Amino acid sequence: MIREQLLQLGQIQGDPCVTISLNTHRTHPDSLQDAIRIQQLCREADNRLLKEYGKRDIKKIREALETIPSEIDVNYNLDSLHVFISESTREIIRSPWPVNEDAVHIGQGFAVRPLIKAANRVAEYLVLLLSQSGVSLYEAMNDAITGEIRNDDFPFPSSPYYLTHHDEQSDARQVDNAVRQYFNKVDKAVVKVHHETQLKCIVICTGNNYSHLMMVADKPGIYEGHANINYNNTTPHHIVSQAWEIVRTRQKEQRAAAISEMKEAVSGGLVLTDLQEIYRAAKDGRGDLLIVRNEFSQPVKMTGERTFDIISDPSAESAVDDIASDVAWEVTSRNGRVVFTDQEEIKELGDIVLKTRY
C-alpha cells in the first residue's frame, strides 16, 4: 500500500500541499511523546500557512491540521509518521524507517522523499487470527501490527455453527459442514479487504482449520501460508512475529530470484553498474529491475538535469542526500521493480545495479 500511496501522492499538485514527517516510538510510554510532537508540528504548519498564505481560502486544510492529532492512535506507531494534507488529500502513513529530522514542508506538491526507501523496503500484509471461537484481522508492516480491521465483518464472533448437541458432534460430516460454512463467510470477508488493500494474508490457526479454509477459499492465492496458533498466546505482538517469519522467508526467495535474473541479463548487455548511467536510464524509463545493497546511500550534487558530482557530505548546500532513493523512485514510478538486499550474491554485481528493458 505504501508504494501505491507514494505513487499517488507524488503526482498530486496543489497550492498548498502540507507534509509533516516525524520520528515516532513503537512502545509505551515513549509513544506518548509522539502525540505531543504531532500537535506541535500541526501548530507549526498552521502558523506557517497563515504567514505564507494569509487570507487565502485554506480553511479546509487548517481544519484538518486541527483534527489530525486526535485521529492518530500512537499505540500503532512504528519508527516514523508522515501526514499529507491538501484541499483534496488527507493521508497518514506509518513507516518502519526513521527520518533524518522532524519537519514540516509546505509547497505545491508533497515531500515524498522520506517514504521512497520505505516503499521499497517494507512488506505490508494481513494477519488473520482464525479459530471457531472468533476471528480477528490485522494489518501488518514487517514485524509490527499497524492496525486492526474493524468493519461490518471483522472481528467475527464465535461460530454460530458450533455444534453443542452430542449426536451432531459425533457426526463427522455435520461437524465438517459447520466448519466450512463458518470459514466460507470468513473467507469472503477477507477477500473484500484484499480487494480494497491488495494485501496478501498470513493465517494463524491450526493445520486442520487452515485446510478447511483452503477448501472453501474463493481466492486461495491471497493466502501466503499459515503458522500454528498458540492458544495460550494470541496477542498481536506474538502472532505478527509468527507471520513475519513466513513473510521474511518468502522475501528472501524473491530476492534470490531477482539476483539470478540480474546475473542472467549480464550476458545480454542489459545490465548497468555505473551510477551515472543507471540514473539516466531510470530517468528515461528504461529501468526494469533495480537491485540496491541495503546500506548503500550516495549523496550527490546535481550539475545538470541528468548529471551530478559524487560528494561525501549529504548535508552540503544543494546536495541530494541519496541519489539511490531518487533512482528507486524513477524505477518504481515507471512500473519497474526495486529490490533492496544484503544477500551475499549481490556483492559481485556491486552496490547498485540496474537491468534495463532494452
Please name the defining characteristics of this protein.
single chain, Translation, Eukaryotic Peptide Chain Release Factor Subunit 1, Chain A, four-stranded antiparallel sheet, 358 residues, 3 domains, alpha+beta, Nucleotidyltransferase, domain 5, 60s Ribosomal Protein L30, Chain: A
Major sheet description: 5 strands, mixed
| Annotated CATH architecture of the largest domain | 2-Layer Sandwich
Determine the CATH topology of the largest domain. Answer: Nucleotidyltransferase, domain 5
Name the assembly state.
single chain
Average pLDDT confidence is: 91
List low-confidence stretches: none
Helix-strand sequence? HEHHEEEHEEEHHEHEHEHEEEEHEE
As a percent range, the share of helical residues equals: 40-55%
The total tally of domains equals 3
Measured between the Cα atoms of the first and last residue, the distance is 29 Å
Q: How many strands appear in the DSSP assignment?
A: 16
CATH superfamily of the largest domain: eRF1 domain 2
Shape: globular
Q: From the alpha carbons, calculate the radius of gyration and give it in angstroms.
A: 24 Å
What structural class do helix, strand and pairing data support?
A: alpha+beta
What's the CATH first level of the largest domain? Alpha Beta
Count of helical regions: 10
Strand content: 15-25%
Strand order, sheet with most strands = 7-6-5-8-9
